[in-house]
Amino acid sequence: MLILGRKDVESVLDGREDLVLDLVRDAYLVHADGGTALPHSIFLRFPEPEHERDRIIGLPAYLGGRQPVAGFKWVSSFPGNIASGLERASAVIVLNSLATGRAEALLDGTVVSARRTAASAALAARKLTADGTASGVTLFGCGAINFEVLRFLVAALPELRAVTLFDLDPARAEAFAERIAASWPALTVDRAADQDAAMAAQPVVSLATTAARPHLTTDAVRPGGVVLHLSLRDLTAESVLAARNVVDDTDHVSREATSIHLAEQRTGDRAFVHAEIGELLREPGRSVDPDRVTVYSPFGLGILDLALAEAVRAEAARAGLGTAVSDFQG
């Protein structure tokens, strides 16, 4: 068993955004071709009212293709952590041998989870915006996920120049702006005064909040704008039904009271879903509707975590990183 901590994972992935984008894209293509096994995620919730927003999710998955891998991600989301200075989310990933089924690697999955989410968003933004370019993005929610989203948008969209921030905590937005200035000094950063101003400010909007119920519409989003609906529960069912919808997997995202799920309950079908991202990535060129808002709602597939985790495991083994435990399972 190879055990890799967060610093090991970061040492492999830092500065390799293009690799991560390629791994995520390839995983989507394998999925679109039917080369994956993806049981539904397991949601562990708690009966106490004070834990209403807390959950731990298990994602079993198998990814075929050139580098087959099987495993499991166990990821928690405890929004109350933020007030005490801890990260909202944390994760571990187990990789299993395809020869014996035995666990052969245990990785900290927090960075993997955040960067595969951000890479998915950046791939969608590149595919769904006109000519694959966008001059600016609104980051709605100033947390770890949107910081990673910006990292990957900078890599995927070379024309990106402007960032608009919105967070219910102004001090949090101010600190976030300072982090952006330190990391990407060429970007201009401003802060929106309210939600509508934030939604209207840029051609791409990334929603990464801790909302448990819909609280936003897309009424203020520009025609042809792209909303990266990463937190999945921000938008009203009416906004979803009015939009052109792209998802990562229609069956997976139509669950657990996501906005897509609520829209399905409203209509009784899923006809409002335009396409899955893997299908679009197989096609050349862009996929743009200049007259409508496009909403991208990725449920977050375990195959993406496994693709990155396997790449990290292989590189870490070559570099002698981590701790090898020979008798972990006897």
UniProtKB/TrEMBL annotation:
* One Gene Ontology term, aspect cellular component: cytoplasm
**Classification via Pfam families:** OCD_Mu_crystall
GO MF, one term, reads: oxidoreductase activity, acting on the CH-NH2 group of donors, NAD or NADP as acceptor
Q: Which InterPro entries match?
A: NAD(P)-bd_dom_sf, ODC_Mu_crystall, ODC_N, SbnB
Q: What processes does the entry annotate via GO biological process terms?
A: siderophore biosynthetic process
NCBIfam families with a match to the protein in the record: dehyd_SbnB_fam (TIGR03944)
What name appears for this protein in its UniProt entry?
A: 2,3-diaminopropionate biosynthesis protein SbnB
Q: Which organism is it from?
A: Kitasatospora camelliae
Recorded name of the encoding gene: sbnB
